[in-house]
Design goal:
The complex is a heterotrimer of chains A (272), B (476) and C (343).
Chain A lengths: L2 H4 L11 H15 L4 E7 L5 H9 L16 E7 L2 E7 L11 H12 L4 E7 L3 H14 L3 E6 L1 H6 L3 E2 L1 H8 L3 E3 L8 H12 L15 H17 L6 H9 L3 H8 L2 H7 L4 H4 L1
Parallel strand pairs in A: 1-3, 1-4, 4-5, 5-7
Antiparallel strand pairs in A: 2-3
Chain B lengths: L7 H16 L4 H20 E2 L8 H10 L5 H45 L4 H39 L1 H15 L6 H10 L1 H7 L6 H10 L9 H12 L8 H29 L11 E2 L8 H36 L1 E2 L2 E2 H15 L4 H9 L7 H13 L17 H10 L4 H12 L5 H11 L2 H28 L1
Antiparallel strand pairs in B: 3-4
Chain C lengths: L1 H20 L5 H29 L6 H8 L3 H13 L3 E4 L2 E4 L1 H24 L4 H11 L5 H10 L25 E2 L9 E6 L4 H9 L7 E7 L4 E5 L2 E5 L1 H4 L2 E5 L5 H6 L1 E2 L8 E7 L5 H9 L7 E7 L6 E5 L2 E5 L1 H4 L2 E5 L6
Antiparallel strand pairs in C: 1-2, 3-8, 4-5, 4-8, 5-6, 6-7, 9-14, 10-11, 10-14, 11-12, 12-13
Classes of the chains: A alpha/beta (272), B mainly alpha (476), C alpha+beta (343).
Chain lengths: 272, 476, 343
């Protein structure tokens, strides 16, 4: 009856076991092929992410948003200019670095699910805090759109956000929205479509403030990864995860799964 | 997944990652988070212009101070929840009556007669119409209206941003019991429906505290058990005191049982967190989101679809077979007496020791699917086992009586005393969760062990407490 | 009648015999297995002791070993003979030496012990005083493969919760760093490098006082019978014997006054403002990561917005969001307060 409930993983018992991971990964592969583009929706809790999800999917599917947060991935679809999009609502998280289940779901989908576009919903009234997550997403994927939600609320509080400056700095489209009122959604859709079909190329901002010792270690490892896997768009992030001892990413590298992800299917930008 | 080193290049990379890691000092996670926040602050500084400290509307701060203040915090909370429960209980009466009139008063006779006219065998008609249909109709008409009122109200408070403040206000007592303040919300939800309450524990992101919330949710008296409480309080507690105090006494008794549930929640949480759950991970974090005007229509839609219909659907799925079982047990005869009577006979000694009786125990066994059908089942079984004539609709057919006086008369003929009434109230609080909730607990924990604990713990407590009460009552 | 009684006795006897002698699962089998394990544990503890003495530049003696294992010297001699027989140690010139097999075994034990302590501290809620005791048992049960899998799962940690290096497979284990607190100078900024977890009673006392590796502090006063130790915002009075279990190193990047001025978020009153300096080393595992992700990173401004009616938790405004922390958590965030407050 409720798809988001049916797919809820048993939370403590099985979240770590390999069968569960494998099942999750396989499932994604099958689903992705039935749509023209897959769009992931990421964001902090309480940023109106579910509102954006509902506004875009037109309530064709309810979000299964139980109090507080979306724990399971909710999926919905929409069509825009004759292209069909699958929208995947990721759990609302503050970060993607931790080992908690919802962060792992979000992280794995961005890496292994390879969405064509990732829309990061940010609260315009608390941009600095929300950029924390946005910057992490930009480390993983180079195809993103920042949805600057609650821009009306920010206006009421006298906060102005220079979205063009922010777009230049982040290297991805930034669209001010008030999803609740439906404001800015056409622009958001246009930006998503442009990034999805490769008309707009993103040059995402990459982090630069790490301590020098970490930076030099990263440089060394990134060089090695890039020479082995030239197609990998997120070598820096992979290097960071490997340094941090993320066994999941190490396993994907060892088995060749990571390399396959980015060589098997060419990004649409290259094929057109 | 192939774990053998099929990719020597990958192995080289992992090797150097290991070497580089050993050379790094300090916490990597910490350095990365600091770097990201530094970047975020720099980027935000370049594009955001804000009037500084005035960025927060003063009304929001004022409201926050008010709803969490030392003096007003708890009274506001109490008033809001009383209002919510009052709206639910009083608002549900009329639609409940209408539904029951429709399903049981109108459709049931039509179905019954239709089945006879079609020449359906009596046993098939009995199982399907008297058993399955009637049980389901009962569950739907009793369960749907209160949930359709309670869940949207609850969701509105949640969307407004008030519920996190409740968790904030109530965290201290929960912390002392080793639980999380957010459990206040899942417990509150449990007063509506335990299955929904168990799902609501998802907002608790600390594994230990979430497990505690799941295991103790059943101690929140769900709306399927309120009718039993009211009925027993009116019939048996109200009659213990002078007539003009009867209303007050019975209301007090129901409140006392609900409060006992909350007390047991804390006690069990305290015990669990210090014994079996000692080794589980525990963290605390609670964000108090800004207040947002709720989207009324959206809320109505999602809470109806997600919560109400979902819970109702599961209840119906479990009520159908239960109805069949009840009818069959009342009509299947072994050696001249029905199966139900045999079972009642076997259960009676145990029931009497607990200050209950065999009818109640059997009703709770067959009513595992839904607490709503306990009272009609008890009535039907009492009439059956006491061999009363002229009351009820026949063996295996659930019914309710309009007047409390005649109801009490039927029960007293069945051997009920004030002790039976009071212990039924206690047992209704302290028994296994309904099958919908048990299934939900299994889905949420993914563990047979914890599901078993959640199921058996309340039953054991129930037996213990009713036994002690019976002991005191009889000694006194 | 008689025949039946005889039958019962015989059947009972057979059941009893099976219970006792069933291979592996019978009482005798279990008892033998437990004895074997106990002997192995004693051997392995001896090997570990010898290695620990060695890396700290001391020599393991029979008497020292007897004291450590709490065994009569005569039994220790038998044990050492056994170890030599197994090719784990050798006597050369009357001194105990580890052979390579013994060294490998001892290194694995230390690695397994420290990994298990890391696991307990990172991924479970087991109380800190229990870590050492549980790891002491577990180190004998983990195989090297299991230890590697555990290391991978934990993200290959390099330090255990006591601040000790977790040796990588095949790597030597470094000796303890730093000097005992008793040897430090008064008023010299220090960093705790190690808190010795033996004897357990002393370790439990230090843990209860909240003294952990990574914390910074200084000696306020040093008297023959007691030391006044200022660490992470609190003063502790320690007996010299207890202080000996704390190893410290001197630090130069801060002045004594900075350490004495340190404050904690829990001390911030409603309506006051502070700036985060960092998280205390006592804040570990998921708790630490969560606080960091919520924005409690150095340099962040924090405003104590409101207290719950019971006085705990307190809601702090951090980077635009209102986050409630419990008192114990706020006590893990080092801050410098920004007074006077501007509400």
């Amino acid at each position: 009856m409720n798809p988001s409930l049916a797919s809820t993983p048993p939370r403590q018992a099985c979240a770590e076991c390999d069968v569960y991971r494998a099942a999750q990964l396989k499932k994604l592969g099958v689903n992705v092929e039935t749509w023209d583009f897959v769009v992931a929706l990421a964001g902090n809790p309480n940023t109106g992410k579910s509102t954006v999800f509902n506004a875009l999917t037109g309530l064709r599917q309810h979000t299964g948003n139980w109090p507080g947060k979306t724990v399971a991935r909710a999926e919905g679809g929409f069509e825009y200019r004759d292209q069909r999009y699958k929208l995947v609502d990721l759990p609302g998280t503050y970060s993607l670095l931790s080992t908690s289940l919802d962060e792992q779901i979000a992280r794995d989908f961005l890496l292994f699910g390879r969405p064509d576009v990732c829309v990061v919903v940010a609260d315009a009234t608390r941009l600095e805090r929300n950029l924390n997550l946005a910057l992490q997403v930009l480390e993983i994927t180079d195809r993103a759109v920042l949805c600057l939600n609650l821009i009306d609320e920010a206006g009421r509080r006298g906060i102005t956000v220079d979205d063009r400056q922010l777009s230049r700095d982040l290297g991805v489209p930034v669209v001010p929205c008030a999803a609740r009122q439906g404001q800015g959604l056409p622009e958001l859709l246009a930006a998503v479509a442009e990034v999805a079909d490769g008309r707009r190329l993103c040059r995402p901002h990459r982090l630069s403030q790490e301590p020098p010792a970490l930076q030099s270690a990263l440089r060394e490892l990134v060089a090695q990864i890039e020479s082995t896997y030239p197609d990998l768009p997120n070598a820096r992030w992979v290097a960071l995860r490997l340094l941090g001892g993320d066994e999941h990413v190490a396993q994907a590298l060892r088995s060749g799964e990571l390399a396959e992800l980015y060589t098997r299917t060419q990004p649409p930008a290259a094929s057109k | 997944m192939n774990t053998s080193p099929a990719h020597p290049a990958a192995d080289r990379i992992l090797q150097s990652a290991r070497q580089l890691r050993e050379r790094l000092s300090g916490d990597l996670h910490e350095q990365v988070v600091e770097a990201i926040y530094a970047d975020a602050a720099r980027l935000a500084g370049r594009s955001v212009a804000s009037p500084g400290q005035g960025a927060l509307p003063t009304w929001e701060r004022a409201v926050d101070r008010f709803v969490t203040s030392r003096i007003w915090g708890f009274p506001i909370m109490l008033a809001l929840f009383t209002l919510m429960f009052w709206l639910t209980i009083s608002g549900a009466n009329v639609p409940s009556g209408l539904l029951s009139d429709l399903f049981i008063g109108r459709i049931y006779p039509v179905l019954s007669e239709g089945a006879i006219r079609l020449g359906t065998p009596w046993w098939l008609k009995g199982v399907v119409v008297d058993g399955m249909y009637l049980a389901t109709a009962w569950v739907v008409s009793v369960m749907l209206p209160p949930m359709a009122i309670f869940f949207p109200l609850f969701t509105l408070l949640e969307d407004l941003g008030y519920l996190p403040r409740v968790a904030f206000n109530l965290d201290l007592p929960f912390k002392k019991a080793g639980a999380h303040g957010k459990q206040a919300m899942s417990t509150m939800m449990g007063f509506g429906c335990n299955a929904a309450g168990v799902i609501a524990t998802r907002i608790i992101d600390s594994p230990r505290e979430r497990l505690i919330a799941i295991l103790t949710n059943n101690f929140a008296l769900c709306n399927g058990r309120w009718p039993t409480q009211f009925l027993m309080a009116t019939l048996f507690v109200g009659s213990l005191v002078p007539a003009h105090l009867a209303g007050l006494a019975s209301a007090g008794a129901v409140t006392a049982v609900a409060a006992l549930g909350v007390l047991i929640t804390f006690a069990v949480a305290w015990g669990l967190s210090r014994t079996v759950l000692k080794g589980q991970v525990s963290t605390f974090s609670l964000e108090l989101p800004p207040y947002r005007p709720p989207q009324i229509w959206r809320t109505l839609y999602t809470s109806l679809i997600d919560r109400t219909l979902f819970v109702l659907w599961r209840a119906v799925v479990f009520a159908l077979p239960a109805g069949a079982v009840i009818w069959i047990s009342a009509n299947l005869s072994v050696g001249g007496t029905s199966l139900a009577e045999h079972l009642i006979g076997w259960l009676d000694p145990v029931g009497v020791v607990l200050g209950l009786n065999g009818v109640i125990l059997l009703a709770y066994i067959v009513a595992i699917p839904a607490n709503e059908i306990v009272i009609p089942t008890v009535l039907m079984l009492t009439v059956l086992s006491a061999r009363l004539s002229g009351v009820g609709e026949g063996a295996g057919v659930m019914f309710e009586l309009e007047s409390p006086a005649s109801l009490k008369q039927v029960l007293e003929t069945g051997g009920w005393t004030a002790l039976t009434g009071i212990n039924l109230m206690l047992f209704s609080l302290l028994h296994n969760p309904c099958s919908t909730t048990i299934y939900t607990i299994y889905k949420e924990t993914g563990s047979v062990k914890w599901t078993a604990v959640a199921t058996l713990l309340p039953v054991v407590l129930g037996f213990l407490i009713t036994f002690l009460v019976a002991l005191c009552w009889r000694g006194w | 009648m008689n025949g039946m009684a005889d039958g019962l006795v015989i059947a009972g006897g057979m059941v009893l015999l099976a219970l006792l002698c069933w291979p592996r699962h019978g009482l005798v089998g279990r008892w033998l297995a437990a004895r074997r394990l106990a002997r192995r544990v004693r051997r392995e503890d001896a090997i570990k002791h010898i290695l620990k003495r060695e890396v700290n530049g001391a020599e393991a003696t029979v008497d020292g070993l007897a004291g450590h294992l709490q065994m009569p010297t005569r039994q220790v001699l038998g044990l050492l003979e056994d170890l030599e027989h197994r090719g784990l140690i050798s006597f050369e010139g009357g001194r105990l030496h580890l052979r390579s097999a013994g060294r490998d075994l001892a290194l694995h034990l230390i690695r397994a012990h420290r990994l298990w302590e890391s696991y307990l501290s990172e991924e479970t809620g087991v109380a800190e005083v229990q870590w050492h005791r549980q790891a002491e048992r577990k180190e004998h049960l983990l195989t090297p493969q299991e230890a590697d899998a555990l290391a991978a799962r934990l993200g290959h940690p390099t330090l255990d919760p006591h601040g000790d290096v977790i040796p990588a497979p095949g790597q030597p284990v470094p000796g303890d760093v730093g000097l005992p607190l008793n040897a430090a100078d008064v008023n010299q900024p220090l960093r705790i490098t190690h808190v010795e977890d033996e004897p357990p009673a002393v370790y439990a006392q230090l843990t209860a006082q909240g003294i952990r590796p990574g914390m910074r502090g200084l000696l306020i006063e040093k008297l023959p019978h007691r030391l006044r130790f200022w660490v992470d915002g609190n003063e502790h009075v320690l007996a010299p014997l207890v202080a000996h279990n704390i190893s410290v190193e001197t630090i130069t990047d801060c002045a004594p006054q900075d350490l004495l001025d340190e404050e904690y978020l829990s001390g911030l009153d409603q309506g006051q403002r502070g700036k985060v300096l960092g998280l205390s080393p006592a804040c570990r595992g998921p708790e630490r990561r969560r606080l960091l992700d919520l924005g409690f990173v150095p340099g962040t401004e924090v405003f104590a917005e409101m207290k719950s009616p019971g006085g705990d938790p307190t809601a702090y405004r951090v980077r635009g969001a209102l986050i409630a922390l419990r008192k114990e958590q706020a006590g893990l965030v080092r801050i410098s307060s920004l007074r006077p407050a501007t509400p």
